[in-house]
Structure formats: C-alpha cells, structure tokens
Amino acid sequence: MPLPVRVIAPGRLVALREQAGLSKAELARRIGVSTRMVFFYENGRHTPTPQRLQKMAAALRCDVEELTGVRRGDERLVDLRFGAGLTLDHVVLRLRRTAVGRDLCLSAPRLSALEQGRPVFGRNWRDNDVVGRLPAALAKIYGVPVRMVVDAWMRTRPDESAPVRPRGRAQEGASGSAGAAWDSLNERQRVYLGEVLRDERMTETEMWMRRTHHLPAPSPSEWRKLPLALCAPASVVGYTRLQERLRRNGVHDPGVGATVHALERRGLLVTITDVVHHPVAGDVTRVRVEMTRRGRAAARAGLGEAAEQQPDTPLLSEWLWGVMARVARAGPDGLERDALSGRAPFYLGVGYKNRSAGRPSRGFIDEVPVLAADGSHVVGYRWKLTPIGLRHIVEYLEEYRRRYPRVDTTGITTLGGKPS
Predict the structure, then answer these.
(1) pLDDT one-digit tens code per residue, 123-168
(2) Fold topology of 77-162
(3) Which of 50, 67, 242, 277 has its CA at 20 to 30 Å from residue 174's CA atom?
(4) Torsion of CA 190, 191, 194, 199, to 10 degrees
(5) How far apart are CA 81 and CA 325, in angstroms?
(6) What's the DSSP call for residue 376?
(7) Which parts of this chain are annotated as the region Disordered (predicted)?
(8) Distances (CA, A) of 393 to 19, 56, 204, 365
(9) For the residues 93-115, what does the mean pLDDT come to?
(10) How far is Cα 94 from Cα 141, in angstroms, rounded to an integer?
(11) Which CATH number is correct for 1-69, 1.10.10.10, 3.40.250.10, 1.10.260.40, 1.20.120.80?
C-alpha cells in the first residue's frame, strides 16, 4: 500500500496565498520549490512533503491543519507527523535511538502500517507494556503532549484498546506533607487558611455563574487573588467578604496582621498589594491574598477532604471529566448548546484551540446541528460525544469513577462499547 500523505485542498491554498499577499513565485522561493511546482500544488496535481508543507504553513502564517483541512481535535497519527514536518524515515531514525524503538524493531513500513490502522507484525508488537511506551517516544519527537499522541492513536486504530493505561499514582506522600503543614499551624492560622479556601470556592462558583449567563469574567489568575483588606478606617470602607468570614469566627485582625504573614512565610499564601479607588475614601491601598498549591492542599487535608489528584496520562482533570460526563448522561439527544460555557469547549470541542499558540482540543465533543422536521433548515445545535470521546469513556470510565467519585456518572455504562 502507498505511504500515507496529507493532501492539501487546492482552493484553500490559493485563498491563503492571496490572503498572505504572496505570488506563486514568492511562495515557491520561500518553500524551496519551483513556481511550476506551486502551480501543481494549487491544481491538486502534486502533494508537498511534510517538510515543505510545514514551510508552506510558515510562509502563509497559518497552521498545517488549515492547509490539509484536518479540524483541531480530529488529528490522526499521520497528522501529528506532518505537523512536525517529518518523513517516516526521519521518525524511524530517531526512534531507533530509543529503547522502545529498538525493542519494537521500528521500520518505515511498520510505522506506516501503524499510521494507516493496519496490523503491525514483529517482535514485541503484541506486548502491551512495550507498545504502551511508544506514544511517549512519539510525543517527544513530534513536540506534543503524550495525550495528543494517545488520542490520535485511538482515532487511527479505533478497534484496539488504548495504548496507554493510567498508572494510578499514589498520593500518600503529597497528602502526608499537606497534613504535616496543617498540623504545624496554630488554631488561629487554621481558621484563616480554611476561610480563604471557602472564599476561593465561593468566588469560583460566582465566576462559573457569570460564564453560564454569558457575562464577562476575569481569568482564574486574577479572581484567585481574593480581596482581604482596604487600608482605611472600617467605618468608611467597611469590611471585605473575607474579613466578614473571619469576624464571624472571632479571629479577625484589623488590616493584615501577623497571622497572614505567618501563613505567607510558610508558603501557604501570597499577598498582593495594589491601589484601588473607593467612592468615599478615594485611592486606598488594597491587600489581596492568593492560596498557593501547597496552601490549598494543607487546607483540604485539615478539613478532611481528599487530596486533589492531578490527571494522569491520558486522563482529563476532574473539571473536564465532569463536563464529559454531563454530555454522556444526555444520551443520544445530546446536551443543549447553551448548557456548556466558559473554557470547556476549547479543551474538549472539535475545532477549538485554547489560545493562539496553544495545543488543539482533544475533540471529545462536537456541536451537532439539529434539523427541522422537514430537513429544510437547522433549528439549533447540541453537544454530543464524538467517536473518540465515546472511545475514551469506554476505555477509562471505571478509572474515572475511582479517581473522581464526586462526579455524577449515573446512567453511564459501557455495555456494548457505548455509554448509555
């Protein structure tokens, strides 16, 4: 069988070239081919090599995906290789320098078969432990996260089990350290730290509500800085919400006292000072506090909560898994378009990218049009699982239930390979 290639859409190439203000001759010069070859590319008579495709994308100031027509979140193994500008031989040469490449006796025909979804024969190719090390090696060569290679692998080879299983990392060490940090605090410091955690959670809920109602909301890096005090008489400026929390517990110091500084010295909080305008007091100094990861872990340990678990390759965070579970629970009809807001689609939805230089989404959900009864027009859109999203749940549902028991997975099963 021929080696897999990525055909560029001629019309798209012409439009992107004209948008960039380049002539055929100038584009040819930048990618190192003849003007005649660019003419062939634009007429669909030839396909550029991975290196030239990458040079072409750089010259046109676009992504490779814009030339090939592959939507973000739909990438297969061959797309990752072309995106890195590498031929089969180049990848094999690098893989042979790794232990897994030698264990699998990697060759261009074997890598080609892997990319085309065909059976791969050879030593150790039936050993899941050995094959499971290959995605990490490919990720390093392609310059992408391992989870992108795992997802692309599952799209390329949908009838096989996922190549990588979560390792089930233990959290005892982190939990023990967090507990020790909590035990080192006096009662007053514990109350402060616990109330800061509760105020952070309330603020997070408020930000979620704003996004749900399509209202502007600051980024987490901003809203996690919680107002603690205004350096002015309370009779004039009043108390912040966090101060009111502390006052109800009978531990509030005027301004920012020794307790906050003690927590900061221990690396549990960070204080930020700025100047804001108050309608009565004028410009006043404001003090905000932000929990560090260590402080959050200590507060959770002190309040008897389970330690936060970092998602293991290729799992989602608890937040994103909660979104996926909502879509899965909606069943074949899908979830209302407005039911999802905020950043979730940028990490999960086909065609999205979380920022200009960020990684493409995982493509686990997609906006599917709903047609009128007579099929004449689209009446709306609903979020539904993509085949790779469905496959991901089939592979990892039990692991998610073990790790994130608070996420509602009622009604989600994998009988017959389909959540229901």
Answers:
(1) 899 999 999 999 999 999 998 889 999 999 999 999 899 998 887 5
(2) 434 Repressor (Amino-terminal Domain) (1.10.260)
(3) 242
(4) -150
(5) 31
(6) S
(7) 159-180
(8) 41, 37, 27, 12
(9) 94
(10) 8
(11) 1.10.260.40
